[in-house]
Amino acid sequence: MAIASETQPQEKASTEVSGEEKKRWTLNDFDIGKPLGRGKFGHVYLAREKRSNHIVALKVLFKSQLQQSQVEHQLRREVEIQSHLRHPNILRLYGYFYDQKRVYLILEYAAKGELYKELQKCKYFSERRAATYVASLARALIYCHGKHVIHRDIKPENLLIGAQGELKIADFGWSVHTFNRRQTMCGTLDYLPPEMVESVEHDASVDIWSLGVLCYEFLYGVPPFEAKEHSDTYRRIVQVDLKFPPKPIVSSAAKDLISQVKNHFLLFNPQWLLHLPW
Ligand code: AMP
Q1: pTM, two decimal places
Q2: CATH number at residue 215
Q3: Catalytic positions (predicted)?
């Protein structure tokens, strides 16, 4: 497709032709279709890029709201990180543009919408379906962590489903690039003690922990540490108060996997999740 700005270098892009100007998108490049949803800072619309007819999701964010909530830096980081990731289970961010009042993100269209809604509809997923999602997530996280990117906000609301039912991680608003952070925070890597060098792995384990929580939620329909009060949830997490209710019936292999994430999440290798036994 012709959505080929500096943020989509691997496709035949006008930008790839040496000496040619980088494509600058404007709203005129798109036919706007139905609204797909509403977020905290704006709306998302189905849209078609006029030249290529490529269908995308156009996220429209209001600058005033971004400024009010002081999340401009977060958005900048999200765009910077997400636009460089290329993985079948990570939602593509093709590019962005802005006018006086709004910022527009050109996103891959996830035709089957939010995973969260699917889960609400089904109440809980079959083990087979949960295993497929967990393996997809593990693949995407292995890819991210290999690039020193930690998502830090893996939850059903941030997962979308593509036309073929494939899971797509979206919303990199809380993600960080640890390599940059290490450089800015600690200067040169050579002088760091082992525990600080190890901290990349340590940080990445945040996502693995979330993956365990998500696996539980897929199978039981509720997250494992849910409680009425925030403080109770906090306490349950700190104590790792993990219980498996009798219903729905979940295999011991699946429960064992969740427990392993719980017990060993710092050492946990997401490669294990690629070939789940159940
Ligand atoms: P957000 O602002 O990212 O929370 O998006 C608001 C809603 O728009 C989401 O909950 C989805 O229902 C929908 N949406 C966002 N991005 C996409 C996309 N790439 N494809 C399809 N629907 C989307």
Answers
A1: 0.83
A2: 1.10.510.10
A3: 153
Domain of residue 182, residue span: 115-274
Choosing from 81, 108, 135, the residue where a domain stops is 108
Q: Is 47 in the pocket of ligand 1 (CB under 6 A)?
A: no
Residue 34 Cβ inside 6 Å of ligand 1? The answer reads: no
Predicted confidence (pLDDT) per residue in 63-76, tens digit = 999 999 999 988 99
Distance (Å) from CA 110 to ligand 1 centroid: 8
Between CA 148 and CA 146 the distance in angstroms is 5
User: Using an 8 Å Cβ cutoff, are 176 and 149 in contact?
Assistant: yes
Count of the separate structural domains present in the chain: 2
Residue with tokens 């996280």: 141
| Amino acid residing at 196 | M
Residues labelled as active-site residues: 153
Residues 102, 62 contacting (CB under 8 angstroms): yes
Q: With beta carbons less than 8 A apart as the criterion, state whether 14 and 52 touch.
A: no
